[in-house]
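Supplementary Note 2. Why include the ligand at all?

Several targets in our set were suspected to adopt different conformations when bound, so apo predictions alone were not considered sufficient. For every target with a known small-molecule partner we therefore ran a joint prediction. The input for S-adenosylmethionine is given below.
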Amino acid sequence: MQRSLYPHNYRRFSSQYSQLKIENSYFLAFRAAAELLEKHRNIGNKLLDFGCGTGRSTRFLKTLGFEAIGVDISQDMLRQAQQVDQGDYCWLDSKEIPFLEQSFDVIFQSFVLLEYSSLFQMINTFEEFNRVLCDDGLTG
Ligand SMILES: C[S@@+](CC[C@H](N)C(=O)[O-])C[C@H]1O[C@@H](n2cnc3c(N)ncnc32)[C@H](O)[C@@H]1O
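The joint prediction is reproduced in token form.
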């Protein structure tokens, strides 16, 4: 059952993943994300980095000025994140994002949804985004 939620072996590769930098094709994706976020900067500062992994994306978002909290289903990835920056990281142990309704102005994800193996999982995630995002919030 865990397998369908967790298709990649981040237990094994979390320390290698934490070495990844924002460069090459990653640079292009993050640059585009920064431009998009900048356009909507007036929306607000509270940001959820969904599937933050080892915190690479969370740290990047903080450099843009956001108050970013990272959540992830992999405790191994989160452990690596904490080792780098002791930031605000939170384990997602169920399908529910552990925050109240309308907690965030922005929900960000990078390279997460492409790992999903079912439409059901995708729908559940977007329902949760809808719940924890402010009415006029931004997700992408
Ligand atoms: C490719 S990594 C990307 C990490 C980070 N966003 C980055 O850009 O460096 C994908 C991350 O998504 C997480 N993930 C996969 N499915 C998830 C889910 N259903 N809920 C939360 N995180 C998930 C994985 O554990 C992994 O850490």
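DSSP finds six helices and five strands in the chain. The two ends are 28 Å apart (CA to CA). Comparable summaries for the other entries are listed in the accompanying table.
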